[in-house]
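README, section 4: Worked example with a bound small molecule

Sections 1 through 3 covered apo chains. Here we extend the same pipeline to holo records, where the ligand is supplied as SMILES alongside the sequence. The molecule in this example is flavin-adenine dinucleotide. Nothing else about the input changes; the structure line simply encodes the ligand pose together with the chain.
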Amino acid sequence: MTSKRVLISGASIAGPAAAYWLARYGWEVTVIERAPQLRDGGHNVDIRGAGREVARRMGVEEAIREATTHEKGTRFIDLNGRMVAEFPASTSDTSGATAELEILRGDLARIIIDAGSKDIEYIFDDTITTVTENPDEAVVSFRKGQDRSFDVIVIAEGINSSTRALLFGDEPVVRHLGLYTANFTIDRAHGDDDWARWYNTTGGRAALLRPDIKGTTRAALSFLSRPEGYEELTLNQQKEVMRGRFAGADWEIPRLLNGLD
Ligand SMILES: Cc1cc2nc3c(=O)[nH]c(=O)nc-3n(C[C@H](O)[C@H](O)[C@H](O)COP(=O)(O)OP(=O)(O)OC[C@H]3O[C@@H](n4cnc5c(N)ncnc54)[C@H](O)[C@@H]3O)c2cc1C
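The generated complex, written as C-alpha cells:
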C-alpha cells in the first residue's frame, strides 16, 4: 500500500485511540463524529488491565492520574448513612469497585484526543452515508461533506453503530440483563464526600452517589425490571419513569429525584 489514508468514524474512546496510533505509524488520519462537538458527558470509567497498559504506552497515564475523580473507595450504607461495608480504592488492576484510576469518560476522551498528533483531522457533525469499494480505495459519501477516498475505514461507533449496520448488516443483538440505570449529575451537598456511597432500598432499587472533580456529584438510580423499551423514550419521559419507579423511596433518593431536572 503506497498511500495510507484512514477514516475513523466515532470520536469517543476507541476512535481517538486508534487515530493516535495510526498517526504515529505514519497514516494520514481523519476522524468523523456524528455529534456537533466532542461528547464530554459520562460518569466514571475505570482504567485497568489492558486499558491501563495502552494508556501507559500512549504516555497518558499521568494525565489520567491528574484528572481522576479522587474517589477513595465505595461504601455501602444503611438508611441512617451508617457504613455497612467499605471497599477502599484498589491498586490492583483487576478488582475492587473503585479503581486506582477513575476518570470521567469525557475527560478521558479529551486526554486521548489531546495526546494525538496535531495532524489528525477531526470532523464533527457528519456521518458516513455510503461506501463504494474500488480495487484501490474506498470512496466515502457523507451526510454533509464532499465525497472522499480512503484506503482503510475503521468504525469506532460504540454499540448500535449505523455504519456497521450499513456495511455489514450484522449488528449484535442486545441481551437485556434485567436492570435499568439512569446516570445524571446533581448539585453537591454537605454529606457528599470523596467516597462513593451506595444504598440499596426496597423493590430491587438502588442509588449511588459518587464524587467528581467538577464540584458536582454524579448520581445513579438503578432498578430491576424486565425490558420496557425505556431507552427509546424522550429524556422527559425517562425522567417521569424514574420518578414513578422511585416514588416513596427513602434515604437521599428524594434529593436525587429533585436533581433530575
Ligand atoms: C456520551 C457517552 C457517555 C458514556 N458514559 C459512560 C460512563 O459513564 N461509564 C462507562 O463505563 N462508559 C460510558 N460510556 C461508554 C464508553 O465510553 C464506551 O463503552 C467505551 O469507552 C467504548 O468506547 P467506544 O469509543 O468504543 O464507543 P463509545 O464511547 O460508545 O463512542 C462511540 C462514538 O461514536 C459516535 N458515533 C456513533 N454513531 C456514529 C455515526 N454513525 N457516525 C459518526 N459517529 C458516530 C458517538 O457519538 C460516540 O462519540 C459512555 C459513552 C458515551 C458516548
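What to look for in the output: The mean pLDDT is 93. The helical segments are 14-24, 49-58, 61-66, 105-115, 162-167, 235-245, 253-259.

Section 5 describes how to batch many such records.
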